[in-house]
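Re: weekly structure request thread

Next one in the queue (701 aa):
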Amino acid sequence: MTLPARQRLTPLIALMALCLALPLRAEDRFFQPLPVVLSASRLPQPLQDTPGAVTVIDADLIAASGYRHLARLFRLVPGMQVAQERGHQQWVTYHGLGADYPNQMQVLVDGRSVYSPHYSGGANWSALPVTLADIERIEIVRGSNSASYGSNAFLGVVNIVTRHTAAETGSSLRTRIGSAGIADLEARTLVHAGVLGLRLSVQEQRDDGWPGLRDDQHLRRVGLRGDVDLGATDAIEFAAGYTEGRLGEGYPDTLFDGSGERDLEQRDHSVHIAWRHVPSADEEWSLSWYRNREHTTDAWRVDSQANCSPGAPGIGPLCARLLASPRLFGDVNNNRSSLRDNIALQHRFTAAEGLRVLWGSEWRYDRIESDFLFQDGRRPSQHEWRLFSNAEWRSAPSWLWNVGAMAEHLEHDRLRFAPRVFLNWQPRDDMTWRIGYSRAWRQPTLYERWANVRVSVDGLGVVNQRHTPNASLRPQQIDAWEIGYLGATPWGGLLDVRVFDERIRDYIRRTPIALTAPFERSATLQAFEGERPYLIHEVMGATQWANMPGTIRLTGLEYQLSLEPRAGTTLLFSHTLIDRRADAPAVRRSVAPHAATLTWLQDIGAWQSTLSLLRMGPLEAGTGYVPGLRHTVPAYTSLDWSLGRRLHAGSQVVDMRLTAINLLGDHQELAHKPLQAMPQHRGRTPNRTGRQVFLTVDLPF
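Done, posted below.
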């Protein structure tokens, strides 16, 4: 860590020393039992016993934020970097390194992976079949966790836990209306019949997106959860979800209409069934199966004369010939669909006094189909097999060991082993120190390994070999060390600190390539090629996903502090500092060096206010594979405010909440606009966020 970064740690060190020195008051409420979480080791553990740092966002904080999008909540988590380039696209990553598609975290809904093989390999935050009102809590494991969840848990895990039907009764109706065409409607109802509990949630969301962009959206979600109590030892849980949406995409002024304006349609559905057998409080068996299906319709036409100018730098001669020739068109059919099946068996038991053990196995099958993405006729698929185990051993009253490992085999790769070892020292009931090491892998997605994308124009044939496959692509590896502290403060709160050192090898990044052999081209196109500085495929960008040489090293500190200085007042503060080292400057700049959030929750009688301030450091995000073109996002500050009040009309309760997003005005969060890669459009202003204000009304009945 550089000297300036060390100097910034001085206030934190002083704060930790003060927390250790001052005695806790008897009335301090903090270390009432901390939340029991499942995501760190798959073992149910109180927060102070977990192997690594875990942040919990509970239902109360979700409601108090007033947000309508799940992804925006992660701005409150230390180490997370969340951004938008369009109104309906959420870019969520931990410690950056998102490049085009953030796919470094495992994302779960009640243990079902929504880390998708569908196109980019990340999570489609807009299409998750879960409403915010269904969520009991969100557990975020900040750090590598392949020992528990396999290769996708490369930098962390997000586990969205929905409410058990036994914890709710009644029905509710929620409506939301506001600026930018925001118009949402949501209905939830619960039914209890003997041993069966059912919850049905239906939601519709509409908005016009950001000014000047084709990014409007119309989404519909249907979610069903059921819980069947089969007696004292057995239970069945099942869930089904369906999402369909129409999303505005593209831009009006990209070269050849390479990313033309159009409407994208998506349809996703899932089913998840789990059986649990609990013969005693010290033992549990579980068996689960789920299936995810995703389908996207995304088609438009390219035009040989669209946005092509004879004066365009570099491609002017080619444009002049194209404009003098008959206009030619070609269809881009970027339709795609995917399938995932997953079966998992897990067994937890107490092996001896102070020793708990969990083991399990998992099989997964992924397949993706797309005539456009895989133009060699391939239908990429892969089988995955996993065997995992975690053990928690209290070797002494103050010492707790967590040891875990995952043996994983994926098609196209050898057996991989991901270990983790953590030691927690708990000198007091309200204090935990931890130190640990883990190794994790991230396997290439099917898209990264096998993408073979060509763009054709009638009369010209193939004009652009946009992506080429890379069958020799290796999984990227991370070795991570961390030291952590979790302890109560003298002001009714919690201090959670994580110091980390992460070393990444074989990082996978989309890179420009020189085609070693000419792809098939028509005679017309070959005639054009003799009169311009470089090929059309050089303008559009011939790329391949490849392993980067050298080591990426991320060293830094992140912490979160909660305080309750008086009744009705809660302060939440998070801060992240990262020293970034990488041979490739673009990779280094893809991680913001610092970020901080401050959230103030205040109850005043029947009113409740939530004010959130975010400061994000500069970073380079988006398409960074065009030589000589940088996508630097300057540091920015955003402010959100939500004000709610509960009203009573006889026995009827109505909750009203007014929420404002980006109160400080427009700012840029990403620079991924396709026209920025075109020479004639360089220097244009990238997409900028806008203010949004909306009113939410909840009517339980």
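The two ends are 55 Å apart (CA to CA). Residues 1-32, 517-540, 675-681 have pLDDT under 50 and may be disordered.
Next request, please.
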